[in-house]
Design brief:
Blueprint (H helix, E strand, L loop, with lengths): L3 E4 L2 E3 L5 E7 L8 E7 L6 E7 L4 E3 L7 E6 L4 E6 L8 E9 L4 E4 L3 E5 L2
Length: about 120
């Protein structure tokens, strides 16, 4: 089974930057969008940003102006550049790929991002 593999998480000070990467272990055809979600301790998983196969992007209000999503959905790769990080950005970040035509969802195992001084 094809999986999504994330990398790039870690510990960073407030105001710092991190870049997350996600790639599929094989090929996932007909992906409509890829995105990043996050889940902080004791909270529900939330959508951070996504990018569609046509290159359109969307962001959660909490990260607009600070995070940038990029990638090639057809090649099953997506990145998240995170700038001006805040302690409230601390969470496990998950990569996601959606095949609307097949009704399927793919998820990565998650990568920890900790923002602390």
């Amino acid at each position: 089974q094809v999986q999504l593999v994330e990398s790039g998480g870690g510990l960073v000070q407030p105001g710092g930057s991190l870049r997350l990467s996600c790639a599929a272990s094989g090929v996932i055809f007909s992906v409509n969008a890829m995105g990043w979600h996050r889940q902080a301790p004791g909270k529900q998983r939330e959508l951070v940003a996504y990018i569609t196969s046509s290159g359109n992007t969307n962001y959660a209000d909490s990260v607009k102006g600070r995070f940038i999503i990029s990638g090639d959905v057809a090649k099953n790769t997506v990145y998240l550049q995170m700038n001006s990080l805040k302690p409230e950005d601390t969470a496990v970040y998950y990569c996601n790929a959606v095949q609307l035509g097949y009704g399927k969802d793919y998820w990565g195992q998650g990568t920890q991002v900790t923002v602390s001084s």
